[in-house]
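call fold target=EAL domain-containing protein
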Amino acid sequence: MAFDVDLPFDAEFDDILRERRIETVFQPVVSLEDRRPVGYEAFARGPEGRFRSPAALFAAAAEVGRSVELDELCARLATTAFRRARMPGLALFVNLNPDTISATGSDDGVAPAYADLMSESDVVMEITEKAVTRRPAGLLDAVLQARRKTARIALDDIGVDPASLAAMPLINPDVIKLDRTIIQSASPDSHVINAVLEDARKRGAQIVAEGVETDEHVEVARSLGATLGQGWLFGRPGPLPTTIHLSDQRLARVAPRAVAKATPYDVLARTEPVERVTEAQLAALCAAVENEAATAPAPAILVVNVGDLRYLRDDSLLGHIFVASRGIEVFLLGYGVPFTPGGRVRGIPLDARDPLRDERATLLVGSHYGSGVFARRHRGGADFDAGTSHEWDRVVEATLPLVSRMKNEIDARAARVEDGTKVRLTPYVETQER
C-alpha cells in the first residue's frame, strides 16, 4: 500500500531549488502600431501545488531566507530559454527583486545571468516603487551598473501606488509601465496620466499599457499615450514561439542621470545664490519646504538632512511624521538618527566622518516639481551659508547624492546578524507574476 506524504515546508522548497523545478513562461510586449513584439517578459512559476503561483513561490523563498538563490535560478532559466530561442532584435523584460539586487554575489549589482545576456541582447530591468523606498542606495547602484552594461530600465506598476510617480525622477526610466487598473478603468486617474505623460515627454521615455485584453483597451491605451502594450489580447504567458515577426518599432533609450559624488550644497551652490543666515532663519526656510510637502497636490519624496540628531527639534520631527502620514515618502538623515524616528519616517544614520554632518538640506521632489533648501555651516561660526532652489532638475540632481548614501534598515540589520544579533526581517513579496 502506498501513502502520499506531505514534505515539511522547508524540505519541499529545498527540493524545488535543488531539482530546478521552476517553469519559465514568457508574455509578449508588442507595438500598438503593428501589434508585433518588441520583446518578451519572463515570469516564473513553481511546480503544481502550494508553490505554483509566483506570489507563493517568492514568499516561501523570503520566509526561509533563500530569495537570492531563487532569483538567480529564475535568471539562469529565463536567460537560457531566451538564448535557445535565438531571436535577435527582441528584448527580454525581467524583474528586479528589491531585497536581493545588492546580494547577487557579483560586482555588477545585477544577477550574473542577466549581466552575461546584456552583451548580446537587449535587456529591460523592471523595478517597482517599493524598490525605491525599501532599498534606495542599492537600487540606484544596480540601475547605474545595469545601464553601463546596456540594459534599459522600466518603472513598473504605475497607478497601483501613487508614490510610484515620485520615484520616476530618481529612476529616470526608459520605459514606464501603466498598471492594468489604469487601462481597464472606466475613468482613469487623470492626475496619474498627466504626470506620466509629462515625464515621458520631458525625457523621451516610452509608455507600456499592461492588461490589454480587448480592442477597446488598445484604444484606451493609445489615448493615454502608450505606444507599447502587454496583455491577453496579444498573448498569455507561455513558451516562446518558434517563429516571430519582429516589430519595426524600437525601444527608447533615455540618457541616464549622473549621480554626483557630492553633497546638495556642492550641487546647488554652483548655480543658486548663497547668503549668510542664522540657524533660526535657516529653520524658517526649511519649514517652508516642509509646509509645501504637507500640502503637495501629488505624491512626492521629502529628504531632510539635519546633520546630527542633536539638531532635530521635537516639533520638526512631528512635522515630518505628519507629512509622512499624508502619503509622502520622508527620509531623515543625520548622525545618530535611528532607523525609525517616528511614524512612517525612514531614518538614515550618517557616518561620523560624512561631510553631510556640516550641512543641512530639505529637498522635496515630485513627479514634475521640486523645491529645496541647502546650507553649509559658515566657517568658524554658528551661522550658515544657505540658498534655495525651485528648479526641478536641479533639486533632483541634489537629491540623488543623498539617496545614494542611504543604507537601508535591511542592510544594517543583516550586518547585525553577521555580528551575532538575531533579527527577523519582514520579507518583500511581488504579488504579480514575475
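return ok
Confidence is low (pLDDT under 50) at residues 1-5, 408-434. The first strand starts at residue 23 and ends at 31.
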